[in-house]
Specification:
Two copies of one chain form a homodimer.
Chain A: E1 7-11, H1 15-26, E2 32-36, H2 40-48, E3 54-56, H3 59-64, E4 68-71, H4 78-86, E5 94-97, H5 103-111, E6 119-125, E7 146-150, H6 157-169, E8 173-176, H7 179-202, H8 214-220, H9 227-236, H10 238-261, H11 264-281
Parallel strand pairs in A: 1-2, 1-4, 2-3, 4-5, 5-6, 7-8
Antiparallel strand pairs in A: 6-7
Helix pairs in contact in A: 4-5, 7-10, 10-11
Amino acid sequence: MKAPWPTVAIIGVGLIGGSIGAALLTRKLARRVIGIGRTKTSLREASRRKLVSETSLDIMSSVSEADLVIVATSLSTISATLEAIDAFVRPGTLLTDVGSTKVRIVAEWERHRNVHRGCFVGAHPLAGSHLQGPSAATADLFIGRTTVVTPSRATPTANVEAVCDFWSALGSTVFVMPPRQHDRILACTSHTPHAIAAALASATPHGVQQFTAGGWRDTTRIASGDPDLWADILLDNGPEVAKSLARVATITEKMLSAIKAGDRRRLITILTHAKEIRDAVGG
Amino acid sequence: MKAPWPTVAIIGVGLIGGSIGAALLTRKLARRVIGIGRTKTSLREASRRKLVSETSLDIMSSVSEADLVIVATSLSTISATLEAIDAFVRPGTLLTDVGSTKVRIVAEWERHRNVHRGCFVGAHPLAGSHLQGPSAATADLFIGRTTVVTPSRATPTANVEAVCDFWSALGSTVFVMPPRQHDRILACTSHTPHAIAAALASATPHGVQQFTAGGWRDTTRIASGDPDLWADILLDNGPEVAKSLARVATITEKMLSAIKAGDRRRLITILTHAKEIRDAVGG
């Protein structure tokens, strides 16, 4: 059987990029998976763990050989990377990314749509973690996970479908929606939880660590995430995060007023509603 | 070897009570462990899982045979249960509990200290979970966990030591502190995280569940806890929870103002501080 994407170039071989490589090779979806990075350390680790079939420090010549390029660098460098490689890819090469916000990245690409050689379709696999780097990468990272594909209004349908096929082939369930809708939803399901987890960890007084248990650990776990990445996410999606944080604050205020009033019934109503939403997700 | 506590009565055989029974039997710390409950269903499950050596629906006659009584009922009934059993225990019998708040429970006991037959020393094993019932109980629940023992100023040292020995024998690290300090600390490390997790779950719009990932799931997990128990906890410890929630709100506001100002450096400082606190705890 012919591999669907003979040569795939992955720029950035961290948790996400490395896992994409491993999944492509394990599932025989690509013949060559070129892992591209700026430093030898992570490339060596990616090689050692067989996440990619070859590695390269020469981004420009590597992308020129690729049928599909995945930009899996840090969020703040995705747009610049897309622009930088565009001059070197073969015309019509499919490009996608893994950035946690989509409005800015898609808008920056669309600004120069007419002069581009490559065909970019933004994507976001919901598979991040507080863990980082190629050592945390696994071939099954995307199995059962959701990936959101965010075309602009100008993106040709064939390209959207090709990128959807790619993410489906890695095992994830794919949803297509406009970048703005993605950013609005992820503000609620990912960015706000992160901000809250960080605030909660930060508000914990010095010297009480011994008295934390599973609840505190679960609730604050993602505060261990990379501050640089999360600052970029929160800044990119500021207005939506602010709206979502305001909703959390309103509910917190309602709980506080029920507590102050000693209104057990009202407090139970709020807690029961929260439990129903949480139980519906499971896991 | 003589078992340190020949006969132990455990009132309530849920996650905590059942796990205490299992730990006592596994570690041969008691000859008889009488599981006491109001309904046959959980007692039968506790028997089936060998969490206790015998079961009883007759609380009064069972506690009269015990050298040590553990009140592991729901938080709101602990004080009434202690008062109810006191007339039936042998004079000098050690009593302890597992309630998540301590100020009210200890104060209610102390109000009638002079007429009591039993010797009560409050305790709180930090081993709760969103899981409930005897089916979730395990003999190793307390291993490596922290238990806080909260004597009043009038509690005889020998009784404090006996209760500390008990919790140490189950595998937990024991700290002794006044009830007020316990409630202040637990507001930060347990009760506020719960309120926040519930608010976060509750603020999640309908229809976006598919777009939650590990971060949302971790941050909201404890919102699956029992609303009745948590309403009791939050009401018992309202003023401390309010103070702790205010600290979280202040930090959230600081993050928001950094986001609005586009102040990446300031945002990274806040996120880095949170990460340091979280990383120090691990797990």
